[in-house]
Amino acid sequence: MKRSTLLLLLFIISSLVTVQAQEIVNGGFELLNNKNLPRTWIIDNGESSFNIGIDSTVFFQGKHSLRIDGTKSKTTKKRPALAANTFGGASSQQLKSVELTAWIKTASTKDSTIALFIQDLKGDTIIRSFLKLSSPANNKWQKVTLRFKFGQPARWYGFYYGIEVNDSAVVWCDDVSLKVDQTPVKDLQNLYKEASATDIRWLNNNLHPIGSVKADDHIPELVPVGNILSEARIVGIGEPTHGTSEVTNLKLKLFKYLVEQKGFTTIALEENIPTCIEMNKIINQSEVNIRESLLSMPFYKCWKTTEMEALFEWLRAYNLERSNKVKLIGIDMEDIQIKGARKMLRDYGTEKNQKIATLIKLVDADLDSLLVLNSKRSNPNKIQLAANSVASDLKRMQQLLGDSEIQINDTDILFDLNTAVRVCQQWLESRFFDGKRDLFMAENISYYLNSHPSEKIMVWAHNFHIANSSQGVEKVMGAYLKENYKEGYCPLAISTGAGTYMATPDYSQKLWKTYVLELPYRGTYAYVLNKAKVDNYFLPLTKNKTNGTGGKWTLEPMKHLDLGYIYSANEDNYKYYGTLSSTFDGIFFFKNTTAAHTLINK
């Protein structure tokens, strides 16, 4: 089979698989997902030419093998069957050698139809080791090994590996093992074992029950939360999905507590900055309809829910009764084609300053040219030159706003205009240079705090973003904040053990639906957290709590519940991104939650 064809198959099917920092081979196919297929493995049935599944009656050892059956379909095999896994996609370590071994049994009598393979992630190289059949070995388990040394000039940092079947054969595969740089790749044992009685006893002894997620109920039960964030100027409150009702309600309860009891003044939402600037104006006005504003403004559509409407209504009610008002800010630069940021500059320039108005017209024109070139997939050098022109325009705008001749005396307006320029620069960097979204979000929080030295912030974002974690070599927002603010940053996760959540089936985002969460399994934190004696609780994860006997499981690598706003039936709901107690200072857990209530479909 041609190299490019195999690459294409793996690219298409692996787009549904998140590359994880913790390697899992699952070579005995004992770990199964909710579709009864091997966890972490990519399965492709060759355009329905093969039936691929778990066999619990034929296996080399253990309880299962992977069965690939090409005899049921009478059609010509245009594509092979593939079962593949990945190694090293989140690493920066250059690899030297690999040894892939599997036990294979087949009912076929043909050579060169069954192969182990490795393929680099870019598809430049594919190495195969074919099963060699002989009459005595037919229908018996045979050991197949593929060995390869990664030579120069190619550099390998990760690869696909697995089995490929090209003909109408019945094939069983079992006990796949992998050595990289002569070191065996071992699965974590917590994927295969139950939590101990000591672990569960520690959990029950250290948790604090949460009776209600209603904003006005049982505020004293949040005192344990307040105890661990006494030094914090920034509290990150995460979420496992962007569509869970109880999570949003709990966040409102937490923000109310932080404002009224801990002196917090600002809520920072994982949302584009210009939109939040406009909504901050609305929550300080009594006559504007919150729901209509939420629906008409360019908020991320996952926020257009009755639960978020309640948040904005509470913010307005609080502000209209007080002179010291809480603020809503955005932290994200994901402003589509920077329309919101450019509009802010354009509106101010048109009304107040001709120099700004003239320069934003140049930004608009140069950006339009860049977008046209990019949409046509023009010469990369032309695209880069066009991007450089926009970057130069924005640099001039930044300098203009710092010019004393401009004379913008209102510090809030000047801050907003400078922030709009930063959003434009960050958006451009993330699309046409090497900008990192999580770094930009952390920088935006710091920029706000440096300009508002008396403010304290609650950051509202996904668990993954607020975590003190590095995904491979790339830090996430929480890791930057922890590095810069030390004990001044307190990340708190929220997770759940079962229920439903809201997501959209495709990128058009026209329809939002309710989906069922995958139940936690061994090797996930939720699997252990779900064994607590109470349904809803807060668990502190400070070092003095987790160093003793019973809490050590929080220091072991396990998977976190982690879902985006686009639903994928093939996605594992759980991901690796750091140990629980090193990534978070505490976690809220619900045994069952329900989907948020979208306003879009009404």
Automatic annotation (TrEMBL):
Signal peptide interval: 1-21
Keywords: Signal
One Pfam family from the record: Erythro_esteras
Record keyword Iron present: no
Domain of life, source organism: Bacteria
Gene Ontology annotations of biological process type: response to antibiotic
Name of the protein described by the UniProt record: Erythromycin esterase-like protein
Species this protein is from: Pedobacter duraquae
